[in-house]
Structures are given as structure tokens and as C-alpha cells.
Automatic annotation (TrEMBL):
GO terms for molecular function: DNA-binding transcription factor activity; transcription cis-regulatory region binding. InterPro entries: HTH_LacI, LacI/GalR-like_sensor, Lambda_DNA-bd_dom_sf, Peripla_BP_I. PROSITE patterns: HTH_LACI_2. Residues 9-49 form the HTH lacI-type domain. The keyword DNA-binding applies. It comes from the Bacteria. CDD domains: HTH_LacI (cd01392), PBP1_LacI-like (cd19974). Gene3D superfamilies: 3.40.50.2300, lambda repressor-like DNA-binding domains. SMART domains: HTH_LACI. PANTHER family: HTH-TYPE TRANSCRIPTIONAL REPRESSOR PURR-RELATED, LACI-RELATED TRANSCRIPTIONAL REPRESSOR. This is LacI family DNA-binding transcriptional regulator.
Length: 360
């Protein structure tokens, strides 16, 4: 018997409250439009009875599909529950890129959050097993156990920001990443040209493929310039919050005997927290310590404003999302071809958070 889905099921899939789902389905003004859109799309694709029986005049939210049919072409977008996709930013842009590209090509997009437990146990959600989409886009999901479980269903899938390897040169799926190594190499090289010799790196390199590549680009720039990488200035080990929170960064930096003259950060969120920490210690950026980031992220509303334009690298989340969907379309037609890794170019933004090494 086909399962009858409830608002609680939808809330669990989207990692939001049942109240949010109810308000979104009733077009409540307190709910952001992009949240309404995801909720209504999910309800429609699950065949949520109350939603399907609603009169057209009761549904004012624009959705990406036109009708719910048995033969509707669908893909699924899966992302870790620890990522707030409803906030503006990189991952939200990726979601919109996938959604707009899928709609343009006549596909509906399903959406589901995955918990850490889902990923560890390789538990594929009902969004996939019950609705059977033609393909899947995985966003930032790097647990191989889940990838193996998904591959056993023989549904084509594309991974954004990572890749899976079983053996040498044997991948489990196509991957789409932003270019990271060379851009970080260039950001680090700019610091070296400004006479910085003692440079640190902050980023949990186990967090994602991009962070590891940025770490590699950093090390390559330092060693190519003839200097040694000072590991005592670097925070790269696995960390509960991936150095995305100020207290975590502060506790680690407080234990350093001395600070370097510059830091290269794996993303802008880390860089913003680092600058807040430095300013709290009475240090000026860039006069005392230079800082670079990556991703060209906006400061979050709960952060103290930082009147600086970060030196960073910009990559379009919309472009990555669109390219991931295009790769999935290509895979539908080339199931026998080797898996591919696609890289979307980044752009350096000089900013004003770096300067000559103090004392030079």
C-alpha cells in the first residue's frame, strides 16, 4: 500500500518544523518565498493529499512544476541536514542553480535533507526509494557508505564539492567542484609577494574535497617560494564545527605561542570569525595581520560587521548548480562512459584585508 504522507514527514525531509510546513502550504506571509517553494514542491511530489485537493486559488506560491503526473520527469537534490539551505549564500545559490536548470529542461526537483545517521548507515530516503527520480544531485555529501547505497539502486547521481573513490581511478559518480587549488595558490603567492614569510592556514581539510585542495594550493605556494610550511601556525585537523565558529577558532589560536603575519582561510566564514578574534585581541587587519578567505560569502546577520572587503576567490553557486544538472543530463545519455570530474573556474578578488608584512 502506498504510504500517505503527512506534514510531519515533509518537515522531517526538509529539516524544518511542522508549523513551518503548515504555514508554507497555506501561503503564510511570515514564511520566505524560497521556503514556501521548497515545501510546496515536496508536498506536490509526495502526493500530499490535502495539498493536491486544494483549490487553485488557495495556492499562490510559484512552484517549479506544472502538474503532478505519474510520468513526470524528476530529479532529487539531497544535502546534509547541518547545512541551512534556506539562508542566502553559496549552498542556497547551488540549490537555485539546480532548480532553475531542471525547470528549464522540464524536470521537477525533489528535495531532502540527510542526517548524519542517514549518511553513516547508508540510509536512502523515501524521496528516492518511493518516488524513483531519474537522477540525484548530492550536495556536499562525502560519506562513501551513502554513495555505495545509492549506487546499488542504479540511479545516476552527481556529487557537488567532493568525489568518491573505491580503487585507483575507480569513481562512484561524476563530480562538479569549484576550482580551488590554483586560486589558493595565487592568494598565498600574493601574501608572499608582500613579504609575508610566516603564514598560517585555517580549515578542516577533512570537511570536503575543496578544503583539501585549498590546503594543497597553500602548501604549494609556500614551498615553491622556497619556504617551509609552519604546521604550528596551521589549523587543519578534524574539528567538531570545522572552525566555522568563533569560540573554536579562539581556543586554538589562544594556545599558539605566537601568531603568524598572515592567515589563509579555507573559506570566508572562517576568515570573518578570525578577523573578529584578532580585533578582539587589539590586532588590526591588515596592518598587523593579513587575512584571505574563499567563496565570496556575505557576512551572516549574527556577526559583528567587519568594514573590510576580504581578499578572496569568488565562485558562482548558481553556475555550479546549473553545471551539476547539465552533467546529470549528459550522464543519462552516456551511462557506459567513465565518470568525470568537472571544475568551474574561480575568480580572485583582491580586497583590502591584506597588506605588506608589518615591520618590513
Amino acid at each position: 500500500m502506498k504510504k500517505k504522507y503527512t506534514t510531519m514527514d515533509i518537515a522531517h525531509m526538509l529539516n524544518v518544523s511542522r508549523t513551518t510546513v503548515s504555514k508554507a502550504l497555506n501561503n503564510h506571509p511570515d514564511i520566505p518565498e524560497h521556503t514556501k517553494k521548497l515545501v510546496t514542491e515536496t508536498a506536490l511530489n509526495l502526493g500530499y493529499k490535502k495539498f493536491l485537493n486544494a483549490q487553485p486559488k488557495d495556492i499562490n506560491v510559484r512552484v517549479s512544476m506544472v502538474r503532478h503526473k505519474q510520468d513526470t520527469r524528476t530529479i532529487a537534490f539531497l544535502i546534509k541536514s547541518t547545512i541551512n539551505i534556506f539562508q542566502r549564500g553559496f549552498w542556497g545559490d547551488i540549490l537555485r542553480g539546480v532548480e532553475e536548470a531542471s525547470r528549464h529542461h522540464g524536470y521537477q526537483m525533489l528535495f531532502n535533507y540527510l542526517s548524519d545517521e542517514d549518511l553513516e548507515q547508508g540510509r536512502v530516503p523515501e524521496t528516492i526509494t518511493a518516488l524513483k527520480p531519474e537522477g540525484v544531485v548530492l550536495a556536499g555529501i562525502t560519506r562513501k557508505e551513502f554513495a555505495r547505497a545509492l549506487s546499488r539502486l542504479e540511479i545516476p547521481f552527481v556529487l557537488i564539492d567532493g568525489y568518491y573513490e573505491e580503487r585507483t581511478n575507480e569513481m562512484l559518480c561524476d563530480s562538479v567542484l569549484m576550482e580551488s587549488e590554483q586560486s589558493t595558490f595565487e592568494l598565498t603567492s600574493c601574501l608572499i609577494e608582500q613579504n609575508h614569510r610566516e603564514i598560517g592556514f585555517i580549515g578542516d581539510v577533512s570537511n570536503c574535497k575543496s578544503f583539501m585542495e585549498r590546503w594543497i594550493g597553500f602548501k604549494r605556494a609556500v614551498t615553491d617560494a622556497g619556504f617551509a610550511v609552519r604546521r604550528d601556525y596551521c589549523l587543519v585537523e578534524p574539528s567538531p564545527d570545522n572552525y566555522f565558529k568563533l569560540p573554536e577558532i579562539a581556543s586554538r589560536l589562544d594556545s599558539m605561542p605566537e601568531l603568524p603575519s598572515a592567515f589563509v582561510c579555507a573559506n570566508d566564514l572562517i576568515a570573518y570569525h578570525l578577523i573578529a578574534y584578532l580585533e578582539g585581541k587589539g590586532l588590526r587587519v591588515p596592518q598587523d595581520i593579513s587575512v584571505t578567505g574563499f567563496d565570496y560569502m556575505q557576512q551572516q546577520p549574527d556577526m559583528a560587521p567587519i568594514p573590510l572587503q576580504l581578499a578572496t576567490a569568488e565562485v558562482s553557486g548558481m553556475e555550479i548548480g546549473s553545471r551539476a544538472f547539465e552533467q546529470l543530463l549528459w550522464r543519462f545519455q552516456h551511462l557506459d562512459r567513465p565518470f568525470e570530474t568537472v571544475r568551474v573556474a574561480s575568480r580572485i578578488i583582491p580586497g583590502d584585508s591584506t597588506g605588506p608584512c608589518a615591520g618590513e
